């Protein structure tokens, strides 16, 4: 019996420039196969781009480092042949006499010739589509198979116009991107093709139906009598699965035919629902479809994680913005724009998981896959399913190539409209079963050409059921008469919007009404005139990384901080060095509009000082942005997407973590502001507000307010008790009067805590540093010298390479007259499913009781940071490093990525906090955790 299933072909590849290979594809796959990475052959990166392969083999400089990208020849100058490459590999495939083998390709840019064991096939053009070749008669069933693929660049790669391009990084993506991704699969005569899963809800989401339609292809020359099975299971504790449904149908498939089969609907009562991040659990069921053929046995198998949920969307009558509902509950959208995981398309499951978990950690609930990027690999959407990130999926229409620039680019969109639609249809089939996928959008700031737009509108129209309210109370029999099963549609469950500024986004009419994209005064985000419309799909700002990233990605000449040029109008213009300018640095000033926000803290002295002050601004900027939007939840806004979440290369703007996966402080400003339950200060009105985005009313809660000066004195303390906060509301509670009082200090700290009265469990904590109107933060400069003592109790749990650290951090300075209630609060930690769980601080002092198999927990370790002064421990941040006895000055020893429950935080005198870290350690490396802060300059080793 042969092996049935799929095998990825993502290792063991060789590549060579086609002009340096004097053999034909037939010769390469018969008599003259390359034996290894000998000139002109080299080890290839698959998946990846030709440029990724050249970088791996040191044949071109690293385009992510300094100005090295400038030295890489562009296809517009080199010609297409220079970037036409052979890819070669071998594989074994054991088959029985009845099995068929398909060779599957995805995303080859732009066309290819495939040679297998001396046989040639030509793949059609188009990078956003899948290809499948039946190679049953070509493979050697018990021996080695030789595979060579000649990949051609686009027919018309073009040239970036002098003025044009989107995304801020177009000078990098000017270099040719080629992606080859493939696998083979072995099946019996009948193959399962593109199943479609749809759920429908009735009786207030208590009664649910699963609709399933699948394609079946009979590759044999006789009628296939099939037993077609659908199995729905859910995982329970201990790795066991509970069978929810098992159904078998008999299907006859004519010889050589392709048919669509729709199962009778499967009924579920009160299933676990899938919710976006912050609204509940991301419950997923495994749906498995199998086919057995009479006389052959098991023929093919397909499975997919599926979430029961309904997404609705309409234009809100109050705000004019697009309003999303999931399972009948309105979702206030707070998220960002996604470009690519990696500019060289070195895409991996592990990187995707980190990327998406970072977005979940920031409490985001939507990612927009921007039209200048890709339809990502399935792993991207899988982790969006896992972590609860709704996906706005855009097709590939954008101003980079459609009607903008000087000289103007092609205004009619893609050259081949039918090919575009083929790619779009195939992308829909690939992604439509993911519960995270929320909507389709035709293009970025543009609409597709009329024929494409009309076709997409028609083919992605909603099934009538999804235009009917689930709360109607009607039975399914009343709603579904004479209607096609919804799984028979191409999609039918999600809306299609023609462009990112139409139909409830921006001004809704396609005018350029997104943005702005620069530094703002924090209070501006709260003002009524900052943004006119209900849903902003792009609003951007700064994103400077930490100093270690600059040193890791630039030579010393790139470490020069900007020059601060004083202008006649009293504003300051930042003049960055050429390397920063090339990497798209965005200034922390906007002459004529916004005074320099870094200089508020005093003139930076060097790279470390500049980047630290930039992190302060990053935190304030993005927290204010999201708090400003959330302050007007439903009264003015329905959502906002930040431009942008991350960079596909080493950019210096609009990012919450850099390409090396180290977070900026803006990451934690967003994390704070986007909490499902949040207490905040309206910087325009100075009202303290409580945000409740959950489905439950908050009752019997209190707000504790304390203000602190630079000497550690508590200047103001007040508790507002017995509060009730309705569901899905932002409620102003009281106006802060301290700035108007007589005992003003120029710079002060404000600590807000929202907690449950019965157990003092903290629901939200928010810490501000503020100055009086017309002032600045320059008094924080001498505050760096204040030595505030800390006590850090930590415990490490190790499971193989995975490390988890739980730390209890306390500011041990305290004035005798400090209020007692401040220290009774206990933290409530949010689980990964978005629910809240009470956890007392005392729990950190106990050993981990439930150990994972094969893991171990170390004894508690106590570290004390010495200090004798009373005050706020300001802007503390942890980092993880590889310990090296021969550490060289300036060497980047960071272990990345690290997931922190919080970072860049501050502690009032006597206050304590739990911080959890998780990361993986490379083999043979000993990790060291260090803490630094505004007034802790030398990194103190915690572990």
From TrEMBL:
Keyword Ribonucleoprotein attached: no
Entries under InterPro entries matching the protein: Beta-gal/glucu_dom_sf (IPR036156), Beta-mannosidase-like_N2 (IPR054593), EBDG/EBM (IPR043534), Galactose-bd-like_sf (IPR008979), GH (IPR017853), Glyco_hydro_2_AS (IPR023232), Glyco_hydro_2_cat (IPR006103), Ig-like_fold (IPR013783)
Q: Domain Glycoside hydrolase family 2 immunoglobulin-like beta-sandwich spans what residues?
A: 190-309
Domain spans labelled Exo-beta-D-glucosaminidase Ig-fold: 840-936
Q: Name one GO molecular function term.
A: hydrolase activity, hydrolyzing O-glycosyl compounds
Q: Which family does it belong to?
A: Belongs to the glycosyl hydrolase 2 family.
**Pfam families this protein is in?**
Glyco_hydro_2, Glyco_hydro_2_C, Glyco_hydro_2_N2, Ig_GlcNase
**Positions of the Glycoside hydrolase family 2 catalytic domain:** 322-454
Q: Does the keyword Hydrolase apply?
A: yes
Query: Which keywords label this protein?
Result: Glycosidase, Hydrolase
Q: Could you give a single Gene Ontology term from the biological process aspect? A: carbohydrate metabolic process
- Origin: domain of life: Eukaryota
Which Gene3D superfamilies does the protein's record reference? Galactose-binding domain-like (2.60.120.260), Glycosidases (3.20.20.80), Immunoglobulins (2.60.40.10)
Q: What is the species of this protein?
A: Rhododendron griersonianum
Lineage of the species this protein comes from? Eukaryota, Viridiplantae, Streptophyta, Embryophyta, Tracheophyta
The name of this protein is: Beta-mannosidase
Q: Which PROSITE patterns match?
A: GLYCOSYL_HYDROL_F2_2 (PS00608)
Per the database record, which ranges form the Beta-mannosidase-like galactose-binding domain?
A: 38-154
């Amino acid at each position: 019996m042969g092996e049935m299933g799929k095998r990825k072909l993502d290792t063991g590849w060789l590549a060579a420039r086609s002009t340096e290979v004097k053999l034909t594809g037939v010769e390469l796959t018969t008599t003259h196969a390359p034996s290894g990475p000998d000139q002109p052959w080299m080890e290839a990166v698959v998946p990846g781009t030709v440029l990724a392969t050249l970088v791996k083999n040191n044949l071109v400089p690293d385009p992510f480092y300094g100005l090295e990208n400038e030295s890489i020849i562009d296809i517009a100058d080199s010609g297409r042949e220079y970037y036409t490459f052979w890819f070669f590999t071998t594989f074994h495939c054991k088959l029985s006499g009845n099995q068929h083998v398909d060779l599957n390709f995805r995303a080859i840019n732009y066309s290819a010739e495939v040679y297998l064991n001396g046989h040639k096939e030509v793949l059609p053009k188009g990078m956003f589509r899948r290809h499948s070749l039946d190679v049953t008669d070509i493979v050697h069933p018990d021996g080695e198979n030789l595979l060579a693929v000649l990949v051609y660049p686009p027919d018309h790669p073009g040239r970036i116009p002098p003025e044009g391009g989107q995304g801020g990084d177009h000078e990098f993506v000017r270099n040719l991107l080629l992606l080859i991704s493939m696998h083979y699969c072995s099946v019996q005569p009948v193959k399962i093709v593109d199943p479609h899963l749809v759920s429908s809800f009735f009786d207030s989401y208590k009664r649910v139906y699963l609709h399933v339609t699948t394609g079946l292809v009979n590759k044999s020359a006789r009628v296939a009598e099939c037993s077609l099975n659908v199995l729905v299971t859910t995982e329970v504790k201990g790795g066991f699965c509970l069978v929810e449904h098992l159904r078998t149908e008999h299907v006859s498939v004519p010889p050589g035919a392709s048919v669509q089969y729709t199962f009778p609907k499967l009924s579920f009562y009160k299933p676990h629902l899938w919710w976006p991040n912050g609204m509940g659990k991301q419950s997923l069921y495994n749906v498995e479809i199998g086919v057995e053929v009479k006389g052959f046995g098991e023929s093919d198998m397909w499975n997919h994680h599926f979430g029961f949920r309904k997404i609705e969307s309409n234009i809100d009558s109050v705000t004019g913005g697009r309003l999303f509902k999931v399972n009948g509950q309105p979702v206030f959208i707070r998220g960002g724009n996604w470009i690519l995981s990696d500019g060289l398309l070195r895409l991996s499951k592990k990187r995707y998981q980190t990327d998406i978990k970072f977005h979940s950690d920031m409490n985001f609930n939507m990612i927009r896959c921007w039209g200048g990027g890709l339809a990502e690999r399935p792993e991207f959407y899988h982790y969006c399913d896992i972590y609860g990130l709704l996906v706005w999926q855009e097709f590939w229409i954008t101003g980079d190539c459609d009607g903008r620039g000087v000289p103007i680019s092609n205004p009619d969109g893609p050259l081949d409209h039918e090919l575009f639609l083929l790619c779009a249809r195939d992308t829909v089939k690939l992604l439509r079963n993911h519960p995270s996928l929320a909507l389709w959008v035709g293009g970025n700031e543009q609409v597709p050409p009329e024929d494409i737009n009309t076709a997409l509108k028609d083919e992605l129209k909603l099934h009538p059921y999804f235009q009917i309210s689930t709360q109607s109370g009607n039975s399914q029999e009343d709603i579904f008469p004479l209607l096609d099963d919804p799984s028979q549609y191409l999609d039918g469950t999600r809306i299609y919007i023609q462009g990112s500024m139409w139909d409830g986004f921006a001004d809704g009419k396609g005018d350029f009404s997104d943005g702005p994209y620069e530094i703002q005064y924090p209070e501006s985000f709260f003002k009524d005139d900052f943004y006119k419309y209900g849903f902003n799909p792009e609003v951007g700002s700064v994103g400077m990384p930490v100093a270690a990233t600059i040193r890791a990605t630039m030579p010393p000449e790139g470490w020069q901080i900007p020059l601060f040029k004083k202008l006649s109008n009293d504003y300051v213009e930042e003049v960055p060095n050429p390397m920063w300018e090339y990497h798209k640095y965005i200034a922390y000033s906007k002459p004529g509009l916004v005074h320099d926000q870094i200089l508020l803290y005093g003139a930076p002295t060097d790279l470390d000082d500049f980047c630290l002050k930039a992190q302060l601004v990053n935190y304030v900027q993005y927290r204010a942005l999201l708090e400003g939007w959330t302050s007007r939840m439903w009264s003015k806004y329905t959502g906002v997407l930040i431009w942008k979440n991350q960079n596909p290369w080493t950019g210096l703007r609009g990012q919450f973590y850099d390409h090396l996966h180290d977070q900026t402080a803006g990451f934690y400003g967003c994390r704070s502001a986007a909490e499902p339950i949040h207490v905040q200060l309206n910087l325009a009105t100075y009202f303290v507000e409580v945000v409740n985005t959950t489905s439950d009313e908050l009752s019997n809660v209190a707000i504790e307010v304390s203000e602190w000066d630079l000497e550690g004195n508590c200047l103001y303390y007040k508790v507002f008790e017995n509060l009730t906060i309705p569901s899905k509301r932002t409620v102003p509670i009281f106006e802060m009067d301290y700035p108007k009082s007589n005992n003003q200090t120029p710079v002060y700290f404000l600590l807000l805590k929202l907690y449950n009265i019965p157990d003092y469990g903290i629901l939200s904590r928010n810490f501000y540093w503020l100055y009086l109107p017309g002032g600045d933060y320059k008094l924080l400069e001498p505050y760096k010298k204040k030595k505030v003592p800390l006590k850090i109790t930590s415990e490490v749990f190790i499971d193989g390479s995975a490390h988890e650290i739980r730390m209890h951090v306390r500011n041990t300075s305290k004035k005798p007259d400090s209020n007692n209630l401040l220290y009774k609060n206990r933290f409530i930690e949010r689980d990964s499913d978005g629910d809240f769980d009470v956890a007392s601080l005392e729990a950190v002092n106990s050993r981990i009781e439930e150990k994972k198999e094969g893991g171990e927990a170390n004894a508690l370790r106590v570290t004390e940071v010495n200090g004798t002064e009373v005050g706020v421990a300001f802007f503390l941040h942890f980092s993880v490093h590889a310990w090296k006895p021969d550490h060289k000055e300036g060497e980047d020893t960071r272990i990345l990525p690290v997931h922190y429950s919080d970072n860049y935080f501050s502690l009032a005198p006597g206050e304590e906090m739990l911080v959890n870290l998780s990361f993986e350690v490379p083999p043979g490396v000993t990790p060291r955790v260090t803490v630094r802060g505004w007034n802790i300059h030398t990194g103190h080793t915690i572990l």
